[in-house]
Amino acid sequence: MKDDGIVKEIPSKSAKFSDWYTAVVLKAELADYAPVRGCMVIRPYGYTLWENMQQRLDARFKATGHVNAYFPTLIPESFFKREARHIEGFAPEVWWVTHRGSELLEEKLALRPTSEAIINAMFAKWVKSYRDLPVLMNQWCNIFRAEKATRLFLRTSEFLWQEGHTLHVSNEEAEAEALKILDLYLDFIRNDLAIPVLAGLKPDSEKFAGADKTFTMEAMMPDGQALQAGTSHNLGQGFAKAFDIKYLDENNTEQHPWGTSWGVTTRLIGGLIMTHGDDRGLFLPPRVAPFQAVIVPILFGKNDEAVLAKCREAVAALEGVRVKLDDDTKQTAGWKFNQYEMLGIPVRVEIGPKDVEKQGAVLVPRDGGRRTADGGDSGKSSGHSGKRFIKFADLKTEVAKLLDEVQQNMYQAALERMQAMMSEASDFDGFRKQLEAKPGFVKVYWCGKQECENRIIDETKTTPRVMVSGEQDESKGKCIACGSETGTTIHYARTY
Ligand SMILES: [Zn+2]
User: Fold this and answer.
1) Once rounded to an integer, what is the mean pLDDT over residues 206-210?
2) pLDDT for 6-41, tens place per residue?
3) What are 177-201's pLDDT values in tens digits?
């Protein structure tokens, strides 16, 4: 990776989106292709990003009373068959283990494509009384769902996720839990990942296999395709009945509890890359970036020791900030600027001989102006410059302030982009035209009939993404497929 042309090797985001995406993932060393088709290796930089995301989610789960556990990867086939809709929905994606060594197994075992079957089977053993409820459990693990092609982080046969599984005494409680988790996810994705989303209900055809209701967050990628960013399901009593989970209520009557399940995956990393990256590479939101700031010494071969000493002082001053000091004297500052912009580090701290003299430093946000190696401006800034000279004594507060600013700006910029990719259509022809003219979310009225949905899907290759809460019943309109009156609106989009 020691060549100056590193950034030039990334194709243009606007012209070749898919190539751009793959190049960024590989160049930034987030992930790589594995020997088995459909599989990926998450490299240390990508895994650190995932760990930061994990920590921030995990803290939220625990703050709302959830505890972590771990269930096995191997799940007997018969467990899957207990919930009919569940096995039907997952059948095409399941990997099966058929042998122990060379010995054929009596019953084949699934590599978990999700864990409702095994977890609810165990819940049946543990839940006996209303005093055992609610059960609020989460698991961090890997998941297997067969894919023929590989799209790093977006479509892989094995990925990482968390899956929450809960049981409650009533449908109201289960519904409240599913919605509480949706809110928790929204807080995480908007405030930590700076990704705007539409949130609400999935139509029945897009529900999780076995769920009564699926709530979803849908993000819009710059190429006009929607990305399902996380789901929370109200499972009703389907799994509790299928797995014979029963408890005695306060009147000593046997009852089935009500369940939920919910998850987000490493796919969010794909969403992050696509949402914030640009022609220079990655751009990571400060709250989850492996490095929030990089310190680059500006060396001229004169007073270098004083500059490097000041840089080390800066590392100490920035305690609590995830910071990297690049004191490699073989690479130019210009090369380092490109490199760390490509890696998406949100803030760069530059310290040169003049800064040492003036007891200062220069801060440059990743989305701000660029300074060339000789200290001048390249003038190639897109938007606000954001570059600032600060007093060294204020380093920590100024960096913290700039990180906050960058975090807010990233969300704002992404929100404006998403809003520019939302439109409405009142009839089928208009819908078709809108899809061509302006790829993104197109909101339409829909009567709720499956045949109308099928027609839209078949003729336009879009899928219904989400019925946004609060948008329903605001006014009556006509279903774009059959023309009948309805108060239900739904956002369609092409999708990954
Ligand atoms: Zn209709």
Assistant:
1) 89
2) 445 899 998 899 999 999 999 999 999 999 989 999
3) 999 999 999 999 999 999 999 999 9
Q: How far is the CA of 169 from the centre of ligand 1 (A)?
A: 37
Q: Using DSSP, state whether 77 is helix, strand or coil.
A: helix
Rounded CA separation 252/250 (Å): 5
CA nearest to 182, candidates 468, 491, 496: 468
**What are the backbone dihedrals phi and psi of residue 473, each rounded to the nearest 5 degrees, phi first?**
60, 10
The answer to whether residues 38 and 157 touch, using CB atoms and an 8 Å cutoff, is: yes
Is residue 294 within 8 Å of 326, Cβ to Cβ?
Answer: yes
Q: How far is the CA of 478 from the centre of ligand 1 (A)?
A: 8
Helices (H), 277-358: 304-317, 333-342, 353-357
The answer to whether 333 and 278 have CB atoms below 8 angstroms apart is no
Q: Is residue 377 over pLDDT 80?
A: no
DSSP readout, 58-79? Answer: HHHHHHTT-EE----SEEEHHH
Note the pLDDT tens digit of each residue in 284-293: 999 999 999 9
Q: Which DSSP letter does residue 92 get?
A: G
* 181 CA → ligand 1 middle, Å: 32
Burial of 392 (0-12, 13-18, 19+ CB in 10 A): middle
Selection from 448, 478, 461, 482 nearest residue 201 by Cα: 448
**Distance from the alpha carbon of residue 446 to the mean position of ligand 1, in angstroms:** 6
pTM of the shown model: 0.93
What tokens appear for 172 in the block?
């109201």
Tokens standing for 466?
Answer: 């989400």
